[in-house]
Amino acid sequence: MRLIAFQNQGQSAIGLRLGQEVVDLTAEGLPATLDALLRAGPEGLAAAQRAGASARTRLPLADIAWLPPLQSPAKAIAVGLNYVDHAAEGNFEPPKYPVLFHRFPSSWVGHGQPLVRPHVSTQFDYEGELVVVIGKGGRYIDKAKALDHVAGYSLFNDGSIRDYQFKSAQWMMGKNFDRSGAFGPELVTADELPPGATGLKLQTRLNGQVLQEADTRDMIFDVATLVSVCSEPFALQPGDIIIAGTPAGVGFARKPPIFMKAGDVCEVEIEGVGLLSNPVVDGD
Q1: Model confidence pTM above 0.90
Q2: What total of structural domains would you count in the chain?
Q3: Could you list the pLDDT tens digit for every one of the 284 residues in the chain?
């Protein structure tokens, strides 16, 4: 299934995308957010599938206002340096343990919504990434069973304010400016993709120019490893997300550097998962 969050007449709703149409699952009696649907466990996803099969009313996809798939995850864990070539271009050693930091929901927007370059910096960088969405909670999750805890996948543009990111050894400031990242467009359930979403082509394009191109099999720490490691310090909960890292080609490492600016359009695409597209504006 391909599940989306959207606004319908000013109200939040969730839907099942069928081609260029959307079944309004909220109108069929399901929750208004995917966060709540995932908290219902496997029955929530099963109810979505049943409602999608029986609903007669559908909305044109072109008419909806997209929201980020998850509105308020208990945890949004981002992974740094998870591709060898990206670590090398930043002059870092490939990590032996995942580099993890937190990304706040206030720092991302949905598909089609503007990314905001803050007035305090011109170093607004792009990072195309896979998102892992937790469907079944747990702590100390065995790697061999970790994929059983994954509800599905999505896309993320981990927009980064580079000069703020490197002001200290902690990356939180540069990674959490309001509306600097993007999440979406939809949650693709795990059964639609290869196990662990491995072997999928990833591209990031700025104004149509391909700047990042990789394969998800090239991640240093695969999805199962990330789920297992992230479950050690705290229990993962349904609706938590893991933003799984970006490959080489980011703007600050290029010579000369390439940064996003007002009027640009940045696209992140992963084979089978979808296309996340956002214009860039100046903010504040």
Answers
A1: yes
A2: 2
A3: 999 999 988 899 999 999 999 999 999 999 999 999 999 999 999 999 999 988 888 999 999 999 999 999 999 999 999 998 898 888 888 999 999 999 999 999 999 999 999 999 999 999 999 999 999 999 999 999 999 999 999 999 999 999 999 999 999 999 999 999 999 999 999 999 999 999 999 999 999 999 999 999 999 999 999 999 999 999 999 999 999 999 999 999 999 999 999 999 999 999 999 999 999 999 97
Residue 6 CA to residue 50 CA, distance in Å, equals 20
Q: Both tokens of residue 148?
A: 């059983």
Q: For residue 3, give the H/E element and its range.
A: strand 2-8
Structural domain span for residue 17: 2-67
151 and 197: one domain?
yes
Residues 144 and 273 in one domain: yes
> 97 and 17 share a domain?
no
* Cβ-contact 4, 14 below 8 angstroms: yes
Q: Is the domain of 29 the same as that of 155?
A: no
